[in-house]
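Onboarding guide, step 5: your first structure request.
Type a short instruction followed by the sequence, for example:

Predict the 3D structure of this protein.
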Amino acid sequence: MARYYLYFAVLLFMGCNSQNTLPNIDRISEHPFGKLEDGSEVIQYSLRNSQGMVVRLISYGAIITEIQAADRNGISKNVVAGSNSLDDYHGRFPSAAVIGRFANRIKEGKFTIDGEAYQVTINSRGNHIHGGRKGFAKVNWHGEALADGSSEASVRLTYRSIDGEEGFPGNLDTSVTYTLTDDNELRINYQAETDAPTIVNLTNHAYFNLANQGGFEGHELWLDADNYTLADEDLIPTGEIASVGGTPFDFTQPMTIGSRVEQVGSPHPKKYDTNFIVNRRNGEVNLFARVLEPASGRVMEAFTDQPGVQLYTGNPRGFCLETQHYPDSINHPKFPSPIVRPGQPFTSTTVFRFSIQ
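The system replies with C-alpha cells like these:
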C-alpha cells in the first residue's frame, strides 16, 4: 500500500510539473538563421503568448526581426522593419539591433572619467555614434531561452565587450533579456557590469510601422515630454534645454507624426532626430509614449526608466523611439550621468505594449 501511494505521488508530481512547463515549450522555440563569415551560427528565437502574438529575434546584434501584432480585424502584421534573411543584415546598419556600448553621439569621440581622457571610434561627421563601426549591433551574442514554468516567454542574450574595444575602457559584460507577456508586452531588460569605470548607454533601434499598408506619417503620437535638448548641426547637444511649446516638437497632445515635420528646420530639416526629455524621471518604469494607427486600430504604448528618448523619422521604413541617456551626456555635467563603475551595474527596462482601439 505504501508503494502504491508513493507511485501515485510521483505521478501527481510529474503531472503538475508538466502542466507548468509545457506552456513554455510551446512559447519558445529556436532555429538556425544562417552563418557569419567566421563560421559562427546565428540562432533565431520565436516567442509566443496565449493571445497569439509572436516576437522573433536573432543572436546577431540581438536584433528583433519580427513583432507580429493583430489589428482590429484580427489580422497580424510584422510592425518592425525586419527580414527573414541574415544577408539583409550585412553591409548596412541593422535595424532593431541593440546599440552599445554607447547609443547616440559623443562629440569628437572624446570624454574624461576621473581625470583620464579617452578617445573612441570616430564614425559620423567627426563624432562617435552608436558604439562605433561595429559596436554591439554587428556581433553575435550568446542566447539562452528561459523556461521557468511561468506564463512568460523570455530569451537572454549576453556579450562581453573587452577593454579597449572601440576605444572604451573596461571589460563590459552585457545582457539583454526579451520577454513576451500575455498582456502583449515586449519587455526589454538591459544589464551591464564593468571591471573599470566606463560609460554605458544601451537602446534598441527598431523602426516601427503599425499600418497594414503605407507609411507611418499618419500615426498619432503622444509623448510625455515637455522639453528637448537643443543640438548643433551635427546633432551634438549644446547643453541647452528647450521647451516643446509652440514648436513642431510638441507631442504633449496627440498629433500625427507627419503633420508638422515640414516645419522642422536646421540641423536636419523635415525629419525628427531629436532627444526628448521624459517628464517622469524618477527611476521607475513609466509610460512615456502612445502611438495610434487609426486605420488598423493598432496601439503601441512605450514605457521606460530612462531619462530620454530619441524620436527618429529619417527612414521611410518606420519611426524610432530609442530610450536612452541624452546624447553626449558624458560631456555635460548637468545631464544624467552615463558612468558605470565596478560593483554598480547598469540596469534599464523598456516595454512596448500592443493593443487595439
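Each response can be followed by summary notes, for example: Residues 160 and 173 are 5 Å apart (CA to CA).
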